[in-house]
Every structure is written in structure tokens, then in C-alpha cells.
Write a structure and sequence with these properties.
Elements: E1 2-6, H1 10-21, E2 25-29, H2 56-72, E3 77-78, E4 82-85, H3 94-114, E5 128-131, H4 133-138, H5 151-161, E6 171-174, E7 178-179, H6 181-191, E8 197-198, E9 201-209, E10 212-219, E11 222-228, E12 230-233, H7 239-246, E13 252-263, E14 272-275, E15 286-290, E16 295-300, E17 312-314, H8 326-334, H9 338-352, E18 363-376, E19 387-390, E20 394-397, H10 405-418, H11 424-429, H12 439-452, H13 463-469
Parallel strand pairs: 1-2, 1-12, 2-8, 4-14, 12-20
Antiparallel strand pairs: 3-7, 4-6, 5-6, 9-10, 10-11, 13-16, 13-17, 13-18, 14-15, 15-16, 19-20
Helix pairs in contact: 1-6, 1-10, 2-3, 6-12
The chain binds flavin-adenine dinucleotide (FAD).
């Protein structure tokens, strides 16, 4: 059976890695020159702690899916904790968040009891730790360590540099790690080195005839057609264009969003810091995400920072592809106007410095991390989604968070087993993929990809690796 995958984001690239590991014949079409170079992903979301609005079932699903992701892509992970704080002016109960995190810690323990290899977020007793104001204030007299070695040390910079008077307590320290998107991209390339991939190739039409797919694609100005037996639509926010080519009707939303990059002093490592808020209002959540080399990714869940006034579009009865405003499609294809980036990045810096006063001295970097993502259905708060099928041999990837890919792959594998393409025994034996890739190779390629995409190459390194190897004297 010949399988085609349209789109080389994390969904399409991981599908290709997995199906090849099952011995299947896979061809991937990607219109860009790199794999995993669409919208960013910097949080693993192991437990959905950044989303107080989602229910406990969805949080558990995100925790379980993130653990699987961590087990299979460990070299793309930035291991450092996340501090969750609720500002005083936000109507969220910090103690309620503590209780919900305790529930997740219990579930994490259950997952470890089922399979000890699931213990990838440390000791479940330390999954979530709560600190009172007095406990945090006591840390102010300690020297700030360059590289924190334990939970308490991760809190020291926070205790001194964040305006504690603006916060409710407890503050939570959660084992929520980061994803380095450049390293994830490098890993996908290294895993798929000898795979048949058409880069810089846009699929312009798909027709279904006698249960086969005829894919028309354009490469270097030339149009060609190839025939396949099974199609995986992994075109991300453009999945609706493929659905439309085939006449499949489905509801989905598309959201355009952006995070910004700033450079700030880097005498010591910071944890990820989340100042909770109310999405889409001028009190939206502020997120401070450290990368190596003194670079920080900033989100402000307000319409003048991360979100956009007209940034959401939905499918219509006549088209499964939501139509984003033309200017966002152009920004995705050709980049942003510099003045807009500068304005929004400065705004993000100002928003974060309300809590972290010295951060007002951070310098904006003029390449945002941005893009559009699809959300199946019509619920904008949906975070855990995987894949849907049309007929026997068409799979539509619908992930909202990258950690959902393994649940997605499991369903695609089951479908192929049902078609008799792969045996159940093989599926059980070949549980996804996992291969230790040479660190130097990943770092070198990740830096090359970051630079080619216009980002500082230090952002492609892991913070601890950066401090150990490359810290300027
Ligand atoms: C600002 C922002 C921040 C985010 N932060 C996080 C986060 O912290 N954690 C997290 O888990 N998720 C995050 N997300 C969501 C995450 O980025 C997406 O869930 C993920 O990228 C979806 O992966 P995908 O492979 O489905 O789609 P994509 O990554 O969009 O890949 C689709 C690919 O298909 C290609 N393509 C499309 N049409 C065609 C065609 N006709 N022919 C050939 N190729 C085609 C595209 O070029 C693209 O490379 C964030 C999203 C945004 C916008």
C-alpha cells in the first residue's frame, strides 16, 4: 500500500517516522524547505496547567499524552520547572489551582504504577509544590544560583525579581517542561534522512477515484501527479483546503497567534513563569519562557499582544477551510511588517515587566514565533484532539497540542491494521519510535534551521547545555 502524507509539521513528520518504522511505504509532501517549521510549540502542557478553563478529563489526557511525547522525543525537551502565579486582580482562586494540580499528581502516580517508564516528570510527590508568601520571601536572602539544582533554587530568582505584592498565594512550582521547536525540527530531519520527501512542493489538487488518491503537486514550477492508496492530511491550519478538494465537509476553527522574542540579562537560569489571566481581555495571561543565550519568548493572551482582533475564522457550509484575513495569510507566507513586530514585542515586554520590573530593559528581537493552528469543531477552548477519518483510507490529523501526536498515531496504526496493511502483533511490538540521536548532530542542525528561519541560533540550544558549553566569559 502506498501512503501519502500532505504536510511536514509535527503531525505529518511523526506519521512518516512511525509508518516507516512499521515497514510501510510513505511519501511526504511539504511546501516549505524544512520539517516542523509551522507554528511554534514551546510548552509541553503536561497537565494543561496553563488552562484553568478546561475540565479535569482534558487535563489528564494532556498529562498522559505529554508523558508519551516526552518518552519518545526526550531530546527536544527543555527540562525546567514552571512557576504558576495568580495576580491579585485576576478572579482565579490560587488554592483551587493547587487542589487541581494535586489531582494531576495523583493521576501521574497512577500512570507510573501502570508503567514505570512513565516516570519522566520526576517524583510524583514533587509534580506540584505550593509555596506561601512567607516561604518565598525567606529565599530572598540566598544567593541566586547560576544553574538551579533543586526546587527551592529555581524559586530564588523569582523571590527577588518578581513583584510579590501583585500576587496571590500559594505560588505553584509544577514539573511542566518546555519544547524546543528547532530541536524537534532537527530530530524530524535526522529521523527521516533517507525518506522520500518532496520539499518545496505544494499539493495543488487531490482527486479520489476507485478508492485511490491522485495527488497533483507543484515543484519548481512543474506540475506532476502521483497515485496513492491511503492519504494522511496533515496540512495543519490548511487541512480544510485538502478537505475541500475532496468534497469532505467538516467544522473547524483556525486561530492566528504570535509569541515574541526578547533578549535579557542571563547571569542565571530562570524557570518558565506564568502569570495567570483571563484570555482575550486586557488582563490576559502573561508567559515568560526562557531559551538559552539570554533569549525569552513572551506571550500576552490579549488582543494587542498574542491574540488578534480578527484572528479567528471558522469553516462555512460551503468550505471546510476557514478563511483568515488576507494580511495574516500573507504574514505567514512572507513574514511580518517590522513596525508591527516591534510594536507588539515592546508591548509584550512592557506587559511582562509589570510583574518582573527589570524586564523593561529587555531588547526586542524582530522575528516573532507565530502562525495559525486548527481547532476541530467549534469550541475554542478544546486542547486535546487527535485525528478523524473519512471512509476507509483518509485520515485527517487534528492535533491542537503537539503532545497529542502519539494518540493520533495509535489511531492511524489501528486503522491500517483494520485494513490488513500491518498486523496487530507488529503494532504492539513497534510502539512508536525512539532512538538516541547524536547530541552534536541535533544541535548543529537545529542551529542551522533556527538561523535559516531568522531566529538567533542560541535559541536552538538547551539552556543547561548552553551554560555548560558556550557561556561567554
Ligand atoms: C503562537 C502559537 C503558539 C503555540 N504554542 C504551543 C505550545 O506551546 N505547545 C503546543 O503543544 N502547541 C502550541 N501551538 C500549537 C502547535 O503549533 C500546533 O498544534 C502544531 O504546530 C500543529 O502541527 P501540525 O503538524 O498539525 O500542523 P503544522 O505545523 O501547521 O504543519 C502543517 C504543514 O503542512 C504544510 N502544508 C499545508 N498545506 C500544504 C500543501 N497544500 N502542500 C504541501 N504542504 C502543505 C505546511 O507548510 C506545514 O508545514 C502553538 C500555536 C501557535 C500559533
Amino acid at each position: 500500500m502506498k501512503i501519502a502524507i500532505i504536510g511536514g509539521g509535527i503531525a505529518g513528520a511523526s506519521s512518516a517516522i512511525y509508518l516507516r518504522s512499521l515497514g510501510l511505504s510513505v511519501t511526504l509532501f511539504e511546501k516549505k524547505p524544512f520539517l516542523v517549521s509551522g507554528p511554534p510549540a514551546c510548552h509541553l502542557h503536561a497537565g494543561g496547567n496553563l488552562y484553568p478553563d478546561i475540565d479535569d478529563e482534558q487535563r489528564k489526557r494532556l498529562l498522559q499524552e505529554s508523558i508519551t511525547f516526552l518518552r519518545h522525543y526526550p531530546q527536544a525537551i527543555e527540562k525546567r520547572p514552571t512557576l504558576l502565579a495568580v495576580p491579585k486582580h485576576i478572579e482565579l482562586d490560587a488554592q483551587e489551582l493547587e487542589k487541581r494540580a494535586e489531582l494531576l499528581a495523583k493521576y501521574y502516580k497512577e500512570l507510573i504504577e501502570q508503567d514505570s517508564a512513565n516516570q519522566v516528570l520526576g517524583d510524583p510527590q514533587h509534580y506540584s509544590l505550593a509555596f506561601s508568601k512567607s516561604q518565598i520571601k525567606r529565599l530572598q536572602s540566598l544567593p541566586t544560583p547560576k544553574v538551579p539544582q533543586n526546587h527551592i533554587e529555581w524559586l530564588i530568582a523569582f523571590s527577588k525579581e518578581v513583584d510579590l505584592e501583585r500576587l496571590k498565594f500559594p505560588v505553584l512550582l509544577i514539573q511542566e517542561y518546555g519544547i524546543n521547536i528547532f530541536r524537534l525540527s532537527a530530530l524530524a530531519h535526522l529521523y527521516l534522512q533517507d525518506a522520500p520527501i518532496y520539499f518545496n512542493t505544494k499539493v495543488v489538487d487531490v482527486k479520489q477515484q476507485d478508492n485511490q488518491f491522485f495527488i497533483t503537486f507543484k515543484k519548481e514550477g512543474k506540475i506532476r501527479v502521483r497515485k496513492f492508496d491511503f492519504l494522511i492530511n496533515a496540512a495543519g491550519f490548511e487541512s480544510g483546503t485538502i478537505d475541500d478538494m475532496l468534497g469532505f465537509k467538516i467544522n473547524r476553527l483556525v486561530e492566528f497567534k504570535a509569541a515574541y522574542v526578547a533578549q535579557y540579562k542571563s547571569e542565571h537560569l530562570y524557570p518558565e513563569i506564568i502569570f495567570h489571566g483571563i484570555r482575550g481581555t486586557d488582563r490576559g495571561m502573561a508567559q515568560f519562557t526562557p531559551y538559552s543565550g539570554g533569549y525569552y519568548q513572551l506571550h500576552g493572551m490579549r488582543k494587542d499582544i498574542t491574540l488578534f482582533e480578527d484572528g479567528i475564522a471558522s469553516s462555512t457550509p460551503t468550505s471546510s477551510q476557514p478563511q483568515l484575513a488576507k494580511k495574516y495569510l500573507e504574514w505567514i507566507e512572507n513574514g511580518w511588517p517590522k513596525d508591527v513586530v516591534l510594536h507588539r514585542t515592546n508591548h509584550a515586554i512592557e506587559y511582562l515587566s509589570r510583574y518582573l520590573h527589570d524586564f523593561k530593559n529587555a531588547k526586542p528581537i524582530i522575528t516573532p514565533l507565530f502562525g495559525a493552528q486548527q481547532i476541530p469543531g467549534d469550541d475554542l477552548s478544546l486542547r486535546a484532539a487527535e485525528v478523524s477519518f473519512e471512509g476507509e483510507n483518509y485520515a485527517r490529523c487534528e492535533i491542537v497540542k503537539v503532545s497529542s501526536i502519539f494518540a493520533m498515531l495509535e489511531q492511524i496504526g489501528t486503522r491500517l491494521a483494520k485494513l490488513g496493511v500491518v498486523s496487530q502483533r507488529k503494532l504492539k511490538k513497534q510502539r512508536f519510535f525512539s532512538k538516541q540521536v547524536d547530541e552534536k548532530q541535533i544541535e548543529h542542525l537545529a542551529c542551522t534551521i533556527a538561523k535559516a528561519r531568522g531566529y538567533p541560533k542560541q535559541m536552538a540550544k538547551l539552556s543547561l547545555a548552553y551554560l555548560v558549553q558556550d557561556r561567554p566569559s
